[in-house]
């Protein structure tokens, strides 16, 4: 974006116009060390098992595993990984005016049909060398994964791409539930929902159980697939996750679904609805 040695504008002037620090123009990213990536993988495993752990408890757990790490470093890595401990906390920040927060609409709601409620979330995916972020769109009633995307940054665009794919392939839900992450409160994301007349629901702050089925999906994806099949790069990870979600939708039965797979539950519900409407 910023050109050096070309054009009439100096680097200082270009940075001022773009509103970025001058040091950013000269920064050249370096790869994460193997030690750093190994620590992030450990944090991810612990957090997947105990999403209520913040940096203090994470420091204790790592120390018990023989890995002494400063709390500040743990806090920095957890922020980078998009990990936030669930549970009550002080209201120390306010949403940006351009990012309104919507009320939670699912409390006490009976959800038993397809495309009544969809939900989404983002999780950290470790690899042998590096890491990625994964977003998935889930049908709440049948647990079926409707669309997913990988990204190397926590931006909104890959979430919008997954949402648009799910809508293009499966129609629209009545309600779409997310957490209060900036990717989902961003106008680019909520605009798609509003354009299709979808009601927006958002979890309360620090309430992981408001989106419990997506949290269970992450546990399954990591413990039953990702941790058992470490990938060397993004291309291999994308192919592996494609196989994972195919297996999850077609082959993995759920007790809560009467031991049906998500595919059986999703398409079976749609067939029943069509017969009732006929």
CATH level 3 topology of the largest domain: Nucleotidyltransferase, domain 5
How many strand segments? 5
| Termini gap | 57 Å
Write down the secondary-structure element order: HHHHHEEEHEHHEHHH
- Under CATH, the homologous superfamily of the largest domain reads Ribonuclease H-like superfamily/Ribonuclease H
CATH architecture of the largest domain: 2-Layer Sandwich
Which class of the largest domain in CATH terms? Alpha Beta
Output the structural class.
Answer: alpha/beta
Helix/strand layout:
Elements: H1 11-18, H2 22-26, H3 34-49, H4 55-64, H5 71-81, E1 117-126, E2 131-139, E3 145-151, H6 157-170, E4 175-178, H7 182-185, H8 187-195, E5 199-202, H9 212-224, H10 234-251, H11 262-277
Parallel strand pairs: 1-4, 4-5
Antiparallel strand pairs: 1-2, 2-3
